[in-house]
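In full, the data:

***
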Amino acid sequence: MKRRFGIDIDGTVTCPTSLLPFINRDFGLNITLDDVKQYDLTKVVDVSEEEFAEWFIKWEPIIYEKSPLAKGAEKVLNSWTAHHELFFISARGAQLLDQTRKWFQNKGLSYDHIELIGSHDKVATAKRHRVDLFLEDKHDNAVTIHEECRIPVLLFNTPYNQEPIPKGVIRVNNWEEANSWVQKWLRG
């Protein structure tokens, strides 16, 4: 039976370190992913939210264009595409849709749908598209999607999402673990 997967893009399909070379260059830092203990990067960069937002808006298209795939994502996603529907749901703004599609094409990734909602609140979109499973890296998104949509959510383990998780949110360390969990879930 074909299932519909809701999949976040940044920090999930892309490597969670994608922003760091840009942050290090522009803010004179030398941070690694292990230094990022919370999702709010202004705490690491030590600038105001306004200053960081201004910087991010300026560099966002280039950061997304240069974002590398997370290790193993291409193989797993391309194996799923033949048997399931892949709906990529991202907090990116809708103005980046053409660029996002181009990135998918350049990376050799197939998709059934890409929706850039311009917000981290993905619940309504996940419900509207009736996804059966979600893959995410942002802790509060994972928990809220699981609780509101009553679906399993795979949370890609990073230093910035270490808060406790309820049953139904499953930590995975990489795309191989995600695929193993999904294969067991599909047989279940």
